[in-house]
Amino acid sequence: MEAINGTLKGKREKSKGRKSAALLSVAEATPTFPFSLYTSHFPRTRPLLTERPARLAFDYAPDNSTPVRPSSSTITASADLAIPTVAASSRVADFKELLKPGISAFVVVTGIAGYLLGAPAGIDWLVLLGLIAGTALTAGGSGALNHVVEWRHDAKMERTKDRPIPTGRITAGVGLAYGLTLLGVGLVVLAATTNLLTVILALTTAVLYIAVYTPLKRVTAHNTFVGAIPGALPILGGYTAATGTFGPIGWVVFAILFLWQLPHFYALAWKYRDDYAAGGFVMLPNVDPTGKSTGRNAVIASLLLLVAGMLPTALGAAGWVYLVGMMGIGTAFTIPAFSFLARPTNARARRLMLISLLYVPMFFALVVIDFLLR
To answer: Residue 87: what pLDDT?
Structure first.
């Protein structure tokens, strides 16, 4: 019996060797183009056969079924080629994340809107481009500094625990130097292309955001009112870049952005109230378990925003197209606010937040259209 088993085992091993050799020859003979075409359109998590001929050749030699390990030089060469590329791209992504690119883009857009509402006749492209570049740099620098100040609290929150500094991918010292450099360069660009008032507003925005609003998030549930000030100053800075003064229109556009932020951040804070509590932040929904105060504040802010959005036309800075459009989006903003007040739920908070995210691009589009129709 043992002899029979030994004979069968030997046959199976020989058959395995022949199959491995045949598989290798098929892999080497198969053209890669169809597979390349496929993988360019359909992502995958496992490598395809034609991407692994080297491994097959090393795992089983063509002559027999004895496994052969690749040499250390082959492994080292592959690692030297692959790892730096991955590390470099990951490093760039981490530094990009420190900029808070979504918020920075929002700040730049509002700055342009403020400039267009203040531009009396035509565009001074040097001023506008300088405003865009300087605002982007100062906003990105402020975002990086916010990462540095809050990284210990970010590490406790599910939504932010994977950020570059809490995970150790970037040190707090590097983030500090990065943020201060961007902020400084941005202020220099604004000073060279706009005016002193705009530079002061940009610096004030950074100081209020980093040194005042950020610590207050752990002290008072009404920190959103303070945080809305630096959030609204960039549009005022855009207006001052065009006019050199604050003016009634400047304060109106400041009010529009100030009021817009309240429902937006109340909805965000309600949706992530448990996460904020875990991070040690005191947001209004954390001290308002029923959601009534949060909903009431959102409704009041949305109604005031509806009125403020129409004031540029009343003051002669915008036309009828802008007015009709702002009446529409302002009214649309109040609907989910009232819905959230009636029954505060995560689903209704999410709906309010989504509407708020649409408001600013539509406001910007109306400002641009109105400017082109002058």
So the answer is: 67
Over the stretch 55-106, which tens digit does the pLDDT of each residue have? 333 343 444 444 444 444 444 444 344 444 446 778 899 999 999 999 999 9
Q: Distance between CA atoms of 46 and 156, rounded to whole angstroms?
A: 33
- Global pTM reads 0.75
Q: What is the residue whose two structure tokens read 């991407």?
A: 51
Cβ contact 49:30 at 8 Å: yes
Buried-exposed string 312-349: b where 16+ CB fall within 10 A, e elsewhere: bbeeebbbeebbebbeebbeebbebbebbbeebeeebb
- Helical ranges in 244-291 per DSSP H: 247-271, 273-278
Strands (E), 83-213: none
Question: Identity (one letter) of the amino acid at 55?
Answer: R
- 290, two tokens: 């029923």
CA-to-CA distance for 262 and 206, rounded, in angstroms? Answer: 19
Q: Which residues of 21-54 are buried (b: 16+ CB within 10 A; e: fewer)?
A: beebeebeeeeeeeeeeeeeeeeeeeeeebeeee
Q: Which residue has the tokens 């300088």?
A: 130
CA 80 from centre of chain: 32
Predicted local distance difference test score (pLDDT) of residue 37: 33
Tell me 50's DSSP state. Answer: G
Q: 58: buried, middle or exposed (CB in 10 Å: 19+, 13-18, 0-12)? A: middle
pLDDT of residue 324: 97
363: burial class by Cβ within 10 Å (0-12, 13-18, 19+)? buried
Describe the crossing of helices 125-154 and 223-243 by its angle, rounded to 10 degrees. 160
SS3 354: helix
CA Rg value for the chain: 29
Q: 159 is written with which tokens?
A: 């939504």
Quickly count: other Cβ atoms within 10 Å of residue 251's Cβ.
15
